[in-house]
Design brief:
The protein is of the alpha/beta class and about 325 residues long. Helix content is about 30%, strand content about 15%. The two termini are about 25 Å apart. Bound molecules: guanosine-5'-triphosphate, S-adenosylmethionine (SAM) and iron/sulfur cluster (2 copies). Catalyzes the cyclization of GTP to (8S)-3',8-cyclo-7,8-dihydroguanosine 5'-triphosphate.
Length: about 325
Amino acid sequence: MLIDGHGRKVDYLRVSVTERCNFRCQYCMPEKPFSWVPRENLLSYEDLFKFVKVSIDEGIRKVRITGGEPLLREGLENFVKMIADYKSDIDLALTTNAYLLPKAAQKLADAGLKRINVSLDSLNDEVAAKIAQKDVLKTVLKGIQAASDAGLKVKVNCVPMKGINDGELVEIMDFCKEKGYPIRYIEYMENQHAKDTAMGLNSEEIQAIIREKYNFKMIEREGSSPSQNYQLEDGYVFGIIEPHKDDFCATCNRIRLTASGVLIPCLYFEDAQSIKEAIQSNDIDKAAAILKDVLANKPEKNKWADEEGNETSSRAFYETGG
Ligand SMILES: Nc1nc2c(ncn2[C@@H]2O[C@H](COP(=O)(O)OP(=O)(O)OP(=O)(O)O)[C@@H](O)[C@H]2O)c(=O)[nH]1
Ligand SMILES: C[S@@+](CC[C@H](N)C(=O)[O-])C[C@H]1O[C@@H](n2cnc3c(N)ncnc32)[C@H](O)[C@@H]1O
Ligand code: SF4
Ligand code: SF4
């Protein structure tokens, strides 16, 4: 079992396979980042898998593949298969913008992927294009349907932004409700890579908008998910990811590995250590020791809602995988 320096059990590894992306979401990477990690600095799938194996052996029970846009990296289904074949009862999932799912969904399901979380910020062509800075909506909707048709369990992520998509939060929920997908609204997290004008809605503001149409109550959190869940009177469950709440980090069970082998203890903080050399020299004991050291130094919480005001993170979401 893996326990961090604050006594929290850590059983969830998020692995970013690339920082590149085919979208430029305003809240994540509005301009093309000026220096992508060169391809030769990326860990191969075999090396990423070696670390996933170490983590599973040490107590990780949930692995999420993310990015950048993970489907941009060729052969992702091979990586999925390596993990699924190693331990079939791992909660293995993917977070994607869905654009490349029409072709990839069935291959991923065949390789052993169980579920998928997709980003859907708007159901309006122009608004979706404004957020992603590309005409994406039709293909995204096809991708989500392809995932569902391939038997993957789908959840939808939506980042509400003031003056951009806040007028359609209920409509997006109704779409998800009809399709049977749980939706989670994510509070925008301040960071230095987002568009300067980006402004998110907090949980209370999101709830007030939903309450204009639906009554709902707060319910228990589901397993190790970061989402606080709420239930409508007809039983439909939606979630809000509320990192600005004081107790959000109290139940943190997550650690992140980047595509170049940097192990990041927290989405928010700078401190991180590389497992690249240990993995590439097959020094498994050293990789396990780095994992434990990073966990021992995992910070207690973020400072997005510090007393002195929101503190902005220099961490890029496209690099850490969100
Ligand atoms: N601050 C913070 N935000 C997080 C954390 N984990 C997830 N999030 C936010 O929630 C977003 C959605 O997460 P997903 O990639 O869908 O994964 P998940 O919510 O853990 O997935 P489930 O297991 O299906 O609940 C992330 O991209 C982040 O924006 C966390 O540890 N800290
Ligand atoms: C970094 S993306 C990577 C996976 C994939 N490209 C996608 O968009 O689903 C993972 C998640 O991070 C979320 N995200 C990115 N920037 C964010 C921000 N500033 N605040 C809150 N969530 C953010 C996205 O909405 C998405 O759900
Ligand atoms: S949120 Fe995902 S899709 Fe949007 S720019 Fe970031 S990595 Fe790309
Ligand atoms: S901000 Fe850091 S400590 Fe808090 S939940 Fe996210 S990863 Fe965990």
